[in-house]
Design a protein that fits this description.
This protein is mainly alpha-helical and about 300 residues long. The chain has one domain. Helix content is about 75%, strand content about 0%. It contains twelve helices and no strands. The longest helix has about 35 residues. The radius of gyration is 20 Å and the shape is globular.
Length: about 300
């Protein structure tokens, strides 16, 4: 049932682009901020404990609905609930749409539009150098695809809709903790400790999917270059678990693209070509995963 719901959910996710804004769920920010304020009162606790409790609190309502209604209508209700939970767990943003907006901004040569489009993909500081910016976009597409798509699919297959939603919840908490820690008033409390705890919790859940996605990039792209990048020693020994996963995805993903600069190619053309190639790599890997999931579904139905 979970695999059938996953296949249907992925199809809906590809088609229902006009509903993507529902997945941002900004109203949860208030609940997360309230949880952080409560954590301030138990500052003597290890910061990971209130972060886990907050995540459990956000998962509990979804668990209650699935537990109470999932068995009705011969399991059909569970199928619908699983599809709905998956839809809201994916994203919140679609990588393909962000790439389209980035390419349009490059072609318009509007620096402000380019900056905003790059910032939406990179989710951080935008490099000033044009070629570094292109590289950052290609790497971020490979990283964000795992965070917004493949990791959620992995936890859905492993633990069902609750697994997918739990991963999304940890990502929401991580994002809000990073935002709060960046504000001046957050430095007066334990905002940085909560941020680190939220990043670590999310990093633990992303560790296995990140490596499966990296292997998938090698399968969907240039295998030899990707495997060499995967085996290459890294210098980020002091990086966190989450950062190691991101470095791996960025390194292997861009190696799988195997893009070579053309002598007669402009910066704009190179940026568009690289972003489209990275998006196509993600789409090819999604097709591979969908085929594997479909085979697992058929095997389960014919046993």
């Amino acid at each position: 049932m979970n695999l059938i719901a996953l296949l249907i959910g992925l199809v809906i996710e590809r088609l229902a682009t006009q509903w993507f804004h529902w997945r941002r769920m900004r109203w949860l920010d208030r609940i997360i901020d309230s949880g952080f304020k409560q954590a301030e009162r138990v500052a003597n606790w290890p910061p990971l404990i209130p972060v886990i409790l907050l995540a459990a609190l956000l998962v509990l309502p979804v668990f209650a609905v699935i537990f109470s209604l999932g068995g009705t209508l011969s399991g059909f209700t569970y199928l619908i609930l699983a599809i709905v939970v998956l839809f809201f767990s994916l994203g919140p943003k679609d990588v393909g749409e962000e790439v389209d907006e980035y390419c349009k901004a490059l072609e318009s040569e509007d620096e402000e539009a380019i900056h905003n489009a790059v910032k939406a993909i990179v989710e951080g500081d935008v490099p000033e150098d044009a070629r570094e910016r292109i590289r950052a976009v290609e790497e971020s597409i490979c990283v964000q695809a795992n965070n917004h798509l493949f990791a959620i699919v992995f936890w859905f297959v492993l633990l069902g809709p609750l697994g997918a939603w739990a991963y999304r919840v940890t990502d929401l908490i991580r994002g809000r903790a990073v935002f709060n820690a960046g504000r001046s008033e957050a430095s007066e409390g334990n905002g940085e400790l909560l941020r680190d705890a939220a990043i670590n919790l999310h990093g633990w859940l992303a560790w296995i999917p990140a490596r499966l996605t990296a292997v998938g990039y090698a399968t969907a792209g240039h295998f030899d270059e990707a495997i060499s990048a995967m085996r290459a020693p890294t210098e980020q020994r002091d990086a966190t678990l989450s950062e190691h996963s991101e470095y791996l995805l960025a390194r292997v993903g861009t190696a799988a693209l195997a893009l070579v600069d053309k002598p007669d190619e402009s910066i704009t053309e190179r940026g568009v070509r690289g972003a489209i190639a990275a998006n196509q790599l993600v789409f090819r890997l999604l097709i591979i995963w969908a085929v594997i999931i479909a085979a697992m579904t058929l095997y389960g139905l014919t046993r």
